[in-house]
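TICKET: design request
STATUS: open
ATTACHED STRUCTURE:
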């Protein structure tokens, strides 16, 4: 190169690949702006545990915008009348769909086509009349379909053919008048195991009208159909285990036409309400003699009941008898004669008043006896003769007194239900024999005195229900005999005092319910100290209130280190109160504190310093006009916060509350007119927020909130579409999300679009320029520098250091060194500037070039083809040209080493311009007269303004 530096760089060659990549990058960025990620705010729905709950919202159509990721969708109890093809098009992962109790009368073909993952579909209680062709197309994975309580009259033969995985089909309480409607339907359900067509007014059941091949059915429910004929003429139900054909309002006998072996696998049979003739009894006995284990005969004709019981007890495998609603006022001693194999007997809802002492003599293997919903006034002696009894129920009778002998010999009893009676008092001896009892229910009686019934006995009792009685106090040691007790229900009594030691001995107790009593703050100070393993304590609806927040000397829960749930909401007295600052002392494992509606005015900042594991806090319905951020610092793991109806005017306290893990926030019915962006940003884990019932201001301060509620992909804002404005007056009643925000905000998306577009265009222009005009820009840069240097040197008027600067290409260096330099320097005495010899090391190349050109009287350009191709040579001739044009002096000499045709010079416009103005020397043309060439060159180097110098040069040039 002309400056002595070899240029190994080459111009990059832009091609189609580069343009494609640039255009693709542009499209990707544009698409990210015009199609932003949206949130999952759904009108009238909330998302909970991956389920969209849209029930009870008066919806008339399936709402749009349900997240595509939900696996459950509850649309029950609305007013939807039609299902369209577009309703579920994006819910390909939905597994459970509940649309019961709507007004659906029409379902478009293909409405379920995209629900390829659906497992259960509930269409109960709608107004469907018929099931059309391919109605359930796409539901290949559906396993359960329920269509009870519609008005279905007709079923197309292809309506269910897509349901190849269906195992349960319920179509009861409809208007199907003939079983043939299922003939072709059943054939398309190869995996069906449970079929229910109860209460459809079917006149007959004939298996050949329903199917002609064996089915996998294990349960068949046909009750309340008034069959006159029940016919099975082929072995189409080889796996049937349960058969229900009872009808409680049928008056005529049922004609049985069943092959002896066709129901040989049935173990559960319900013939409730049927008119059974002697021949029918014989038929039943023959059909089910070796398989039947459970027989239900509810609402039978009483005159025939004894014979039916005797018949059933002759079947050796029968162990369960259900005999409800048979009006058995008196149980005689011979009623169950022969029932030695019965282990479970249900006699509930029979109005029984008396039971013979020997009524159960034959039931020595009985384990479960249900005598609930009868008219017994005392515990019958007959039950004491059942040594293997495990479960006994006297629920909802008229028992007013328990005697010491009532449960004699029932040492194996595990569960005893005596609730909803009229028992007023207990004796110490009443449960003395129940050493194996685990569950005792005595709720909803009139018990006012425990009578030491729980001080010594019941060593294995784990659950005791004494709620809804008349207890007024718990004395020391009342439960000390219940060392295995885990759950104790004492709610809805009249308890005013818990004595110290009330729960002594209950070291295994984990749950105690004391809500809806009359406890005061000073009546239970040390009552809970013995409950060292208690997990849940409920003190709702009592009279617990404190006048101030002063620390208590003996905090009531200081020994309950295992307690996880403490509930104290809604105290009866409506006086304003506080909670002592150390009220929660000792509750190091508390995870849920419920203090709703306690009329609290204030929380001391140290209230939760004792509960580091608190995750759920409910302080709703208190008169808390302000909350300090310091209150929440000790409970940084809080996940759910309820602050509804607290008179709070702002949520700004959350900004500094350090609730980084809060996921659920309910703040209904407060006075939040504006929700600030800082509040939401301070809750990075927030997934659900409920702000219903607040008085929003519809101005520019809330614009961001409306947009965030709709678009945020993480946080669900419950019922955001129904938020209404209260201010200003002109917009009162208008919905917040309908607010015209154009006057409030600049279209940020549009600005982003313009900014990104301009950036991309600039990127493309710069890239294009770099690839195609890189060198032209470099030229312009150096030309600019040359102008600066030209001005600098022009102003300085410095004397020339050299006679000539030689501009040449490295490839032409041999000619310069061997020919040019000897002639001009050695023979003529000119002082030449050569780059390899005279350039200053370490100095920028362009500075060396400029200094050399402006520091020499003239510039000699040794031009060859290699010279024309050199970038640095081109820059040297540009700088020399600027000097030529600026000084208007003959400072440039062109010497051609090669004959270069004019056509080849067309690409080098600067050389062509110089040739038009400047004379030049050609070395090839001087081959015959080289001396003439050197004479002309020396003459061109002479300074015409300095005659003396000219003479000196000529003299030097004439030397031999």
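STATUS: resolved
RESOLUTION: sequence designed for all positions
ATTACHED SEQUENCE:
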């Amino acid at each position: 190169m002309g400056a002595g530096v070899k240029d190994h760089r080459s111009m990059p060659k832009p091609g189609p690949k580069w343009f494609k990549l640039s255009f693709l990058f542009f499209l990707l960025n544009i698409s990210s702006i015009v199609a932003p990620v949206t949130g999952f705010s759904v009108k009238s729905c909330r998302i909970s545990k991956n389920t969209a709950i849209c029930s009870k919202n008066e919806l008339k159509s399936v709402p749009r915008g349900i997240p595509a990721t939900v696996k459950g969708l509850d649309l029950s109890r609305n007013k939807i009348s039609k299902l369209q093809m577009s309703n579920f098009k994006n819910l390909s992962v939905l597994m459970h769909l509940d649309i019961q109790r709507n007004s659906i009368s029409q379902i478009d073909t293909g409405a379920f086509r995209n629900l390829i993952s659906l497992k259960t579909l509930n269409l109960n209680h709608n107004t469907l009349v018929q099931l059309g062709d391919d109605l359930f197309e796409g539901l290949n994975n559906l396993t359960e379909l329920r269509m009870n309580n519609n008005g279905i009259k007709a079923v197309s033969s292809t309506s269910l053919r897509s349901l190849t995985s269906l195992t349960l089909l319920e179509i009861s309480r409809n208007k199907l008048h003939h079983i043939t409607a299922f003939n072709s339907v059943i054939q398309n359900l190869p995996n069906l195991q449970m079929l229910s067509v109860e209460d459809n007014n079917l006149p007959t059941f004939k298996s050949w009208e329903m199917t002609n091949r064996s089915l996998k059915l294990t349960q068949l429910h046909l009750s309340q159909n008034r069959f006159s004929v029940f016919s099975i003429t082929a072995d189409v139900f080889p796996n049937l285990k349960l058969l229900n054909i009872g009808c409680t309002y049928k008056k005529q006998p049922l004609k049985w036409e069943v092959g002896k072996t066709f129901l040989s696998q049935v173990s559960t049979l319900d013939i409730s309400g049927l008119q059974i003739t002697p021949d029918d009894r014989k038929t039943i006995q023959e059909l089910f003699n070796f398989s039947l284990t459970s027989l239900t005969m509810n609402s039978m004709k009483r005159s025939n009941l004894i014979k039916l019981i005797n018949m059933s007890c002759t079947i050796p495998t029968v162990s369960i008898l259900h005999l409800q609603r048979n009006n058995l006022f008196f149980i005689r001693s011979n009623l169950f004669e022969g029932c030695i194999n019965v282990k479970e007997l249900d006699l509930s809802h029979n109005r029984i008043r008396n039971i013979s002492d020997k009524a159960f003599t034959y039931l020595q293997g009985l384990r479960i006896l249900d005598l609930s919903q009868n008219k017994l006034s005392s515990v019958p002696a007959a039950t004491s003769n059942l040594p293997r009894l495990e479960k006994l129920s006297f629920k909802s009778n008229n028992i007013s007194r328990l005697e010491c002998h009532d449960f004699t010999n029932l040492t194996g009893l595990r569960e005893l239900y005596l609730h909803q009676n009229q028992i007023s008092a207990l004796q110490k001896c009443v449960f003395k024999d129940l050493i194996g009892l685990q569950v005792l229910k005595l709720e909803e009686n009139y018990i006012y005195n425990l009578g030491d019934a729980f001080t010594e006995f019941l060593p294995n009792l784990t659950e005791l229900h004494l709620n809804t009685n008349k207890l007024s106090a718990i004395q020391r040691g009342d439960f000390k005999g219940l060392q295995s007790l885990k759950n104790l229900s004492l709610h809805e009594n009249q308890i005013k005092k818990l004595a110290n030691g009330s729960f002594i001995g209950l070291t295994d107790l984990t749950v105690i319910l004391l809500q809806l009593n009359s406890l005061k703050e000073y009546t239970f100070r040390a009552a809970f100290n013995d409950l060292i393993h208690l997990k849940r304590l409920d003190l709702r609806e009592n009279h617990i209130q404190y006048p101030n927040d002063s620390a208590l000397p003996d905090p009531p829960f200081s020994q309950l280190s295992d307690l996880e749930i403490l509930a104290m909401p809604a105290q009866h007295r409506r006086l304003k109160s506080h909670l002592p600052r150390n009220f929660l002392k000792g509750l190091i494992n508390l995870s849920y504190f419920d203090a709703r509606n306690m009329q609290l005015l204030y929380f001391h900042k140290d209230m939760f310093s004792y509960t580091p594991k608190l995750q759920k806090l409910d302080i709703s319905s208190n008169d808390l006009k302000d909350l300090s951020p310091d209150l929440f610092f000790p409970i940084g793991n809080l996940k759910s916060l309820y602050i509804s109806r607290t008179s709070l005017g702002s949520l700004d306290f959350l900004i500094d509350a350090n609730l980084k893990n809060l996921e659920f926030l309910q703040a209904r019915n407060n006075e939040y007119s504006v929700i600030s962006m800082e509040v939401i940003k301070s809750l990075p884990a927030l997934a659900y927020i409920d702000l219903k019932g607040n008085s929003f201001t519809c101005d520019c301060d809330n614009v961001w909130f409306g947009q965030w509620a709709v678009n945020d992909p993480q946080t669900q804002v419950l019922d955001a579409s129904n938020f209404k404005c209260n201010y200003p007056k002109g917009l009162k009643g208008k919905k917040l999300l309908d607010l015209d925000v154009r006057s409030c905000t600049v279209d940020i998306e549009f600005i982003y679009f313009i900014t990104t577009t301009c950036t991309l265009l600039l990127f493309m222009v710069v890239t294009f320029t770099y690839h195609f005009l890189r060198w032209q820009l470099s030229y312009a840069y150096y030309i600019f520098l040359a102008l600066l240097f030209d001005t600098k040197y022009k102003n300085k008027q410095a004397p020339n250091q050299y006679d000539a600067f030689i501009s040449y290409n490295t490839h032409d260096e041999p000619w310069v060194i061997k020919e040019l330099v000897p002639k001009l320097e050695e023979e003529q005495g000119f002082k030449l500037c050569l780059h390899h010899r005279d350039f200053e090391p370490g100095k920028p190349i362009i500075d060396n070039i400029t200094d050399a050109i402006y520091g020499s009287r003239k510039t000699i350009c040794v031009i060859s083809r290699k010279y024309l191709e050199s970038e640095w040579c081109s820059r040297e001739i540009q700088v020399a040209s600027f000097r030529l044009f600026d000084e208007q002096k003959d400072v440039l000499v062109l010497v051609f080493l090669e004959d270069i045709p004019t056509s080849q010079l067309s690409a080098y416009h600067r050389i062509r311009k110089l040739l038009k103005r400047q004379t030049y020397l050609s070395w090839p043309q001087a081959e015959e007269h080289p001396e003439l060439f050197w004479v002309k060159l020396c003459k061109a180097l002479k300074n015409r303004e300095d005659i003396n110098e000219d003479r000196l040069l000529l003299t030097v040039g004439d030397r031999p």
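CLOSING REMARK: The longest strand covers residues 856-863. Residues 1-39, 944-960 have pLDDT under 50 and may be disordered.
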